[in-house]
Specification:
The structure holds two protein chains of two kinds. By secondary structure, chain A is an alpha/beta fold. Helices cover 32% and strands 22% of the residues of chain A. The longest helix of chain A is centred in the last third of the chain and has 20 residues. The relative contact order of chain A is 0.19. Chain B has one domain: ACP-like (Non-ribosomal Peptide Synthetase Peptidyl Carrier Protein, Chain A), CATH 1.10.1200.10. Chain B is 58% helix and 0% strand. Chain B is globular and about 30 Å long. Classes of the chains: A alpha/beta, B mainly alpha. The interface between A and B is medium-sized, with 18 and 14 residues.
Chain lengths: 467, 84
């Protein structure tokens, strides 16, 4: 591609939200430039290849995995807005997932009634409160951009009195999206509750590559100028309005491009630091993770494990926080991609183990210690996984990434996977024409990220913005 | 341009938006929202597609006139005529 001297909109970051925003803007004839610092698309949900194997980053599961034709669901909305037929997503539902605490275990599938029934038998004295809690969740309009921020735990305490049930129900929702420690914003909790428990989990055959391919094909079809290895240097404004964007392109060097609108998916503090409106009070996020990926000779099913995801927690309380050590080895998510309903895709077994991790401690390690500690994490993950198998597994190959890896490839401050605890729900910033999409706008998960890009493009770019 | 032509143009747009719905069985006198999975975001898309493809503009206060296929044809026909 060749750069034009000006664009109607520049989208920063070719992750899920940035690609979705660019598609919507281009669909209605805006001239769009989409830049990505990394050499491939995807952002926090990307992929790599090692030892002749395809590995996914992010995407344990696609949330909101409703069946085709489900009216009014976020996934159907998203597909319609991007003009992608449901079948092209090749979505395969989960079997079931476990929430495993020392005292009790819960499981949930894509049939919410099963979860409901299980809560009735596991926490009988909580059931009437639970039913009212679920009604309050169903009735809440979580995507209203004017919603106030308040504590989901406080809300849960109005309905439920057993802390164990609250901890168990919160754990998958927090680790799949919360930028807050120990708690969630009520709107975000409702988004996650609906998208995981009420709608369900699935995986596109082919994993994150399938979604990325659908989006990049659209971008091509709509003639979006997509440029990899091209980094945002600064956003210039005149009289409080976006005027020019300075870029650093790996091949062409520094470039200055005119535009009136910038949609940034690189995070709220990360974006504001590229402007002359540096806002010191926007915090970087604390939540980062390690993930170890194992390839096994056997499939997990053959080893006696049929669950798709296991939310493992070795304490009565769920400590969703930045650990004081490199990782918190008492709590983990285990993802078994073979255990979606259709398992023709893989010849080997695959296991992914995620631990909460401390970014600073990882970043400050010497190169030698870093390697050694990665190996220790891998060994701990392997030991944990083995407790969930009935037979001994044959491990063939493994790889581990850390908060340091996340920072390096995504440029999110502090390797914060779910962004800043400070969100901008309407996407606006102190600068007119500069908007935030993605996790720091506040919709969660991959579906949420894409809906964020769509909503911000619609709201600011197509309905009220330039032109 | 005949009413049938206008209907075809509107149907083409709806088919591209509600791409997993069967649009061949639409009852022209029944609300589109009831028959198809269309929400307010989709109606905005219909309006934007009318402008993009046919230069036909629908002001916000007239959105209710797009409720059924019949009302779409009645409302849009003079607008298409004016452009012809």
């Amino acid at each position: 591609m060749e750069f034009k001297t000006s664009y109607d909109a520049i989208v920063v970051g070719a992750g899920m939200s940035g690609m979705a925003a660019a598609i919507r803007l281009a669909m209605f004839d805006r001239k769009v430039l989409l830049i990505e610092k990394h050499s491939i698309p995807g952002g926090l949900n990307s992929f790599y290849r090692r030892a002749n194997r395809n590995l996914d980053v992010g995407l344990h599961a696609l949330t909101n995995a409703v069946p085709k034709g489900t009216r009014g669901a976020p996934l159907t909305k998203l597909l319609k807005q991007l003009r992608i037929p449901y079948e092209n997503l090749k979505l395969c539902p989960q079997t079931y997932s476990l929430i495993r605490f020392p005292e009790k275990t819960l499981s949930f599938s894509n049939d919410f009634n099963e979860f409901d029934e299980l809560i009735k038998t596991t926490f009988p004295e909580q059931f009437s409160g639970w039913t009212n809690f679920v009604t309050a969740i169903k009735d809440f309009d979580e995507t209203n951009l004017q919603n106030e921020y308040f504590s989901a735990k406080e809300k849960a305490n109005e309905f439920l009195s057993d802390p164990l049930l609250i901890e168990m129900v919160f754990s998958p929702l927090m680790i799949y999206g919360s930028a807050w420690e120990h708690d969630m914003d009520w709107s975000q909790f409702v988004i996650m509750f609906k998208s995981i428990y009420l709608e369900g989990l699935g995986r596109p055959v082919g994993g994150v590559r399938t979604i990325i391919k659908l989006l990049t094909d659209k971008l091509k079809e709509l003639n979006v100028d997509l440029r990899y290895s091209c980094e945002l240097q600064s956003i210039e404004s005149v009289d409080g309005k976006v005027s020019t964007v300075l870029l650093k392109d790996r091949k062409l060097g520094e470039l200055s491009i005119q535009t009136q609108q910038v949609f940034s998916s690189i995070g709220l503090p990360e974006t504001m630091d590229k402007t002359n409106h540096k806002e010191a009070n926007i915090r970087a996020g604390n939540m980062s993770f390690t993930e170890s990926i194992f390839f096994l000779k056997e499939k997990p099913r053959e080893l006696g494990q049929n669950a798709t995801l296991i939310f493992h927690n070795n304490r009565d309380q769920y400590l969703y926080q930045k650990p004081k050590t490199l990782i918190d080895d008492q709590s983990a998510v285990i993802c078994l991609p073979n255990n979606y309903h259709d398992d023709n895709e893989f010849e080997e077994g695959i296991v992914r183990v995620t631990f909460m991790a401390n970014n600073e401690l990882w970043t400050n390690l010497s190169e030698e210690d870093y390697k050694a500690q990665k190996e220790i994490v891998s060994q701990k993950a392997k030991a944990l996984v083995s407790t969930y198998f009935e037979k001994e597994a044959t491990f063939i190959f493994d790889d581990t990434f850390t908060p340091k890896t996340v920072t390096r490839y995504t440029s999110h401050y502090a390797g914060a996977v779910y962004g800043s605890p400070d969100k901008t729900r309407d996407g606006k910033t102190a600068i007119d024409g500069l908007y935030i999409t993605g996790t720091d706008q506040g919709f969660l998960g991959i579906v949420g990220a894409m809906l964020s890009g769509i909503s911000m493009a619609n709201y600011h770019g197509l309905q009220g913005g330039a032109q | 341009m005949t009413a049938t032509d206008v209907r075809t143009k509107v149907l083409d747009i709806i088919a591209d938006i509600a791409l997993d719905d069967d649009v061949t069985t639409i009852d022209d006198s029944v609300s589109l929202r009831e028959q198809l999975d269309l929400d307010s975001m989709d109606f905005l898309d219909i309006v934007m597609e009318l402008k993009k493809r046919h230069k036909v503009e629908v002001p916000q206060e007239d959105y209710p006139k797009l409720a059924t296929m019949q009302s779409c044809v009645d409302y849009l026909s003079p607008k298409f005529q004016a452009l012809a």
